[in-house]
Design brief:
The protein contains 15 helices and seven strands. The strands form three sheets. The protein has a three-stranded antiparallel sheet with strand order 3-4-5. The protein has a two-stranded antiparallel sheet with strand order 1-2. It starts with a helix and ends in a 6-residue tail after the last helix. It is mainly alpha-helical and 350 residues long.
């Protein structure tokens, strides 16, 4: 409760007894932000990732104005903060929108606790032009190419062709790690698992042709039936006593993302993809080869898109993925509808 929070601050700042309102006002915005992070982090069991996001917000606020107050942000200061993020930090509009959401969450907490009585921030809604985020996934032929790819030995120089038809060579490094990455990534593509759940998967979670897990991110318990591709990948690691009961070898998410890009480049997934975003009113188009845009979460997206394109109803796909509403599925449904229309146009080319 409020008294408990005040006592915590009394201990932290060398004061004794309960704060009076005037003493409470002596605390600064960053003091309250620390308390907000502590309370919300414990209440909502924040992941390391969420804590890192608020640590970044604290750094941005410090860079904006180390003496900024709650009253500043609750009033006209939000507009200046947005301008700072856009001009000084060169943030995309989408990123600014997320930072603004974090600030409002904090200010709502301050208001509820009685540390702020200016609610003008609630109606602050700057016009941030945002382009829809492109869903990057592997189509079935691409997925099969990755699934069947035999990673060359270390030191082998592979001749590749870029999107413009120019040949170049790529030397293979860490072949064993790339092979493990291929298997774990493809398993996610065939089951819809997030990387965190695949990394945490234990042999005891698998019974016959299905697995049952409590997901790391949402703590939902889901059961996923296993197709022949997923089962074949599990079989490759079935007799590995060194895995200590886990289904797969451990690779950090960061290293997985590095190896994934190497793997998909070796597989020739280099078609150019344009991503559009805005910084203020400036439109920026970035063109990248597909392999550069592939990360561990692409596996989950690949499963969803291919399942929908196979005609599996969205409500069944949601049982596997753990999505609770159609809002989260809409981007995938839009993508698969566009892909179906594109596929039908092939008849017109005959």
């Amino acid at each position: 409760d409020t008294n408990t929070l005040k006592m915590e601050f009394a201990n932290a700042f060398g004061r004794s007894g309960t704060h009076t309102q005037s003493e409470s006002k002596q605390l600064g915005l960053f003091d309250y932000l620390e308390l907000f992070i502590k309370e919300m982090g414990e209440l909502n069991q924040w992941t390391v990732g969420t804590r890192q996001k608020f640590a970044a917000l604290r750094n941005h606020l410090t860079g904006f104005n180390p003496d900024v107050t709650i009253s500043d942000l609750a009033g006209d200061g939000l507009n200046d903060f947005v301008a700072y993020l856009r001009t000084e930090k060169q943030m995309k509009n989408t990123t600014i929108g997320k930072q603004l959401g974090f600030v409002k969450w904090f200010l709502n907490w301050c208001t509820a606790k009685g540390y702020n009585d200016n609610t003008a921030y609630r109606t602050f809604a700057p016009k941030l032009k945002i382009a829809p985020k492109k869903v990057v996934f592997l189509e079935w032929e691409e997925l099969m190419r990755v699934y069947h790819y035999a990673v060359p030995d270390n030191g082998v120089e592979v001749i590749l062709t870029d999107a413009d038809g120019r040949e170049y060579t790529k030397t293979v490094h860490d072949a064993a790690a790339i092979t493990k990455t291929r298997d774990i990534f493809c398993f996610c593509c065939f089951t819809s698992l997030r990387y965190s759940d695949a990394a945490n998967l234990k042999r005891a979670d698998i019974a016959g042709d299905s697995l049952t897990i409590t997901t790391v991110k949402t703590a939902d318990t889901i059961t996923i039936e296993l197709n022949k591709y997923a089962l074949s990948i599990l079989e490759r690691y079935a007799d590995r006593a060194d895995l200590n009961g886990y289904a797969f070898p451990h690779i950090t998410n960061q290293r997985m993302n590095v190896y994934l890009k190497d793997l998909c480049e070796l597989c020739g997934l280099n078609q150019p993809i344009t991503q559009t975003y805005y910084r203020g009113s400036e439109r920026i188009d970035e063109v990248s080869p597909k392999y550069e845009l592939i990360g561990t979460h692409t596996g989950r997206r690949t499963f969803i898109c291919n399942a929908l394109m196979l005609g599996i109803p969205a409500e069944i796909v949601m049982k596997w993925t753990g999505h609770s509403d159609y809002k989260a599925m809409k981007p995938y449904i839009d993508v698969t509808n566009a892909s179906k229309a594109k596929a039908m146009n092939k008849f017109n080319e005959l």
